[in-house]
Amino acid sequence: MSILLEQAQAAVRAAQQKALEMGVKMNIAVVDAGANLTAFARMDGAWLGSLDISIKKAKTARFFDMPTGELGKISQPGGPLFNIEHSNGGLITFPGGIPILDSNGRVIGAIGVSGSTVEDDHAVAQAGVAAVRDVR
Amino acid sequence: MSILLEQAQAAVRAAQQKALEMGVKMNIAVVDAGANLTAFARMDGAWLGSLDISIKKAKTARFFDMPTGELGKISQPGGPLFNIEHSNGGLITFPGGIPILDSNGRVIGAIGVSGSTVEDDHAVAQAGVAAVRDVR
Amino acid sequence: MSILLEQAQAAVRAAQQKALEMGVKMNIAVVDAGANLTAFARMDGAWLGSLDISIKKAKTARFFDMPTGELGKISQPGGPLFNIEHSNGGLITFPGGIPILDSNGRVIGAIGVSGSTVEDDHAVAQAGVAAVRDVR
Amino acid sequence: MSILLEQAQAAVRAAQQKALEMGVKMNIAVVDAGANLTAFARMDGAWLGSLDISIKKAKTARFFDMPTGELGKISQPGGPLFNIEHSNGGLITFPGGIPILDSNGRVIGAIGVSGSTVEDDHAVAQAGVAAVRDVR
Hints:
Shape of chain A: globular
Largest sheet of chain A: 4 strands, antiparallel
Number of domains of chain A: 1
Protein name (chains A, B, C, D): Heme-binding protein
Largest interface: A-D, 19 and 21 residues
Number of strands of chain A: 4
Distance between the termini of chain A: 11 Å
Oligomer: homotetramer
Structural class of chain A: alpha+beta
Strand content of chain A: 15-25%
InterPro entries (chains A, B, C, D): GlcG_carb_metab_protein, PduO/GlcC-like, PduO/GlcC-like_sf
Organism (chains A, B, C, D): Hymenobacter aquaticus
CATH architecture of chain A: 2-Layer Sandwich
Radius of gyration of chain A: 14 Å
Low-confidence stretches of chain A: none
Helix content of chain A: 25-40%
CATH topology of chain A: Beta-Lactamase
């Protein structure tokens, strides 16, 4: 199973709403189970450089089925996966990417958010994840 | 001036609605005046290969401020811009990409649609353009 | 549903066998429903340049759910999809790539073969497709 | 001399068998003396992001004729080859890639494995190497 467009758009809307409440300008990307872009929104005035980062965060979270920040902990100098970021056309391994699971705990996609501090990015991504409800 | 997210999302919604009415599954991308992705939707079951094409159509339409199909007429063998598709990381020059103008006739972005015949792609893109109204 | 490794390897083995019978040296690639490489074999002495082509043929066949040669008919100069090959990091649109379907007619992957004439490539790809049986 | 397909496939089979015994899901890539992909298998359900990593590990091991983990020791901050990962379209320098030698000690190819911890990846790669016997 993969995330449906309806679910992906709900995630983007919720993330946008959260970002507005926090007063931050975000790029928000949702990918499906195949790590293909499914829904995307770039808020007015968000950093140009964050567009690509948001998509790479979403893909990274799905590539390894874990929050991007978790991967970043083990890709540090001296860590077991040092410089894994050079794979897959470029990974982003700091917080802001989170897998999206269905009610059976299976990964159906992921969300990636970029535009503020990594704490803000992660919080907005969480709001997106929380908005995904099983449709079937 | 550049397209606002609100306008870009209106364009995506209208294009999605049009595609549903036509019974086709589309990838729909909207870029801003800087040719940066602003809003995107991938309808459930749309061709995998059309994702990249929809984004490239939107970028191509903004890169040269003309519908992609117009550029394709002059990129043919023997034409003045033969194989211009090799530039900018890959252009798509068949129909489905259309610039979006404001009420003063200035290009503020573009839409790219891919997933069916080029005629269908162009029709869905037109529905997206028509939905953009000046917000200011 | 996506092709299983067991099925993909059966396809590669059958294609290899066919190539041996025909006296040709092939690169043989099988991708899954997400267009991800699943099984691959490069026969001793096969053209170096055919490696990438075999993978691109398999991906192209899955990207658009049709044999690569069919896509090539409409990507010719003056055709509706002229120069579509510039999308998705490079497509190959001459024969040798074929979608693989399950018993319900759903595309579960694709095979791409390169190393001889396009007729030979297509024949070897067909032998691969014929070897895939439903496992479930 | 370069690895033969027969040897490369024996390496993939042995690595697959080892992974099954260990209960891990791996991507397994074998490259020849020219660092060209020769045989590949992606086990059902293996991480999406590990596909590219397995191939990059195999190439890296052949590019420098040493296990990837050895290169990683000298690519750390302050080390002599800091950030060598930026070369050759992306290297992977943590364990899981191992050169394959013939009975005369000459490098004839390499194997790269990715899908679990780097210790598991390396163990599965070793099983693959051990399965390569001189055919001539």
